[in-house]
Write a structure and sequence with these properties.
about 35% helix, single chain
Length: about 290
């Protein structure tokens, strides 16, 4: 969809195309296909199709390795995708849930339709913080690729949340979201709920260097800390207050998905873990994980 047409509609534009991923549909499609084939070549273990997911939101150079598992492990039709992300660019009050009300979501691979989701939880409808939020955008090209492959539309609903005070608040939100999902005219196998989050952000750029001067390598210490958080999410024992910014930026969103898994009695699995250092060496490090439930 061209920019002139977008300006006359309520379609969220692809804000980060040409910056964080290709804006050419053929090149982007080729990049996604190659990432998926490369992941398949690494002899990925088979598992049941996931309903709940934790996926990263960095540029596709770094995140496509994690996103490719969505296409590999969910070969059947997806009709609805619910994305829950932190907001990186605006402060939110505690427990505030924001919901978008766009009519669709543009990508270089086509437009994704809007999914109407009525949730009985105090919710602020405001498109503005979604316009510049990469946390809700980065998975959209993969969903659009999936939509083209399956030749059936995928409806998308987006939420932002930065802060949940405790597990009780998390459980309240998760229950409200689950009730809304159950009211959709789809089976759980046709729905994916995606928590958008990276894990440890380490380095001077992030003002987070607690492992300097340790005898053990920084890489192993980062992984140890990440695995503690990943384990508590998989086990559903996220009891701490979640506040953005934190080293795992989308902890609130991830805790909601973790709580949903508990309510649905779905077991979690760590599918992929790596850091930006595995892709490109730099002075900083960001960790990424694919977790399926």
């Amino acid at each position: 969809m061209d920019k002139d047409t977008l300006s006359l509609t309520n379609i969220r534009p692809a804000r980060f195309s040409s910056y964080w991923y290709q804006d050419n549909n053929q090149l982007l499609s080729k990049e996604i296909k190659e990432a998926t084939l490369h992941t398949k070549e690494r002899n990925v273990n088979q598992m049941s199709e996931p309903t709940l997911m934790i996926l990263p939101h960095s540029g596709l150079t770094y995140s496509k390795r994690a996103f490719s598992h969505l296409l590999i492990h969910h070969p059947s039709v997806i009709k609805a995708a619910i994305i829950i992300s932190p907001c990186h660019y605006a402060p939110f009050v505690p427990n505030a849930l924001y919901q978008s009300s766009f009519e669709g979501y543009d990508t270089p691979l086509g437009c994704l339709s809007s999914l109407s989701l009525e949730i009985e939880y105090p919710t602020i409808h405001d498109n503005f913080p979604f316009l510049s939020e990469h946390g809700v955008e980065m998975v959209l090209p993969f969903l659009a690729y999936k939509q083209h492959e399956q030749q059936q539309d995928i409806g998308v609903s987006m939420f932002l949340i930065n802060h949940l005070e405790n597990k009780e608040k998390t459980k309240l939100l998760a229950s409200a979201l689950l009730n809304a999902i159950k009211n959709l005219p789809y089976s759980l196998s046709e729905i994916v709920v995606i928590a958008s989050s990276d894990f440890t952000h380490y380095g001077k750029r992030f003002q987070h260097t607690p492992f300097e001067g340790r005898e053990e390598s920084v890489e192993s210490l980062i992984k140890r800390e990440d695995m503690k958080v990943i384990d508590e999410l998989i086990r559903g024992i996220h009891t701490r207050e979640s506040i953005f910014p934190s080293t795992a930026c989308g902890y609130a969103a991830m805790s909601v998905v973790s709580e949903l898994a508990l309510e649905l009695s779905i077991k979690g699995h760590l599918v992929e873990y790596y850091t930006s250092q595995d892709i490109m060496k730099s002075d900083d490090s960001v960790s990424y994980a694919t977790i399926f439930f």
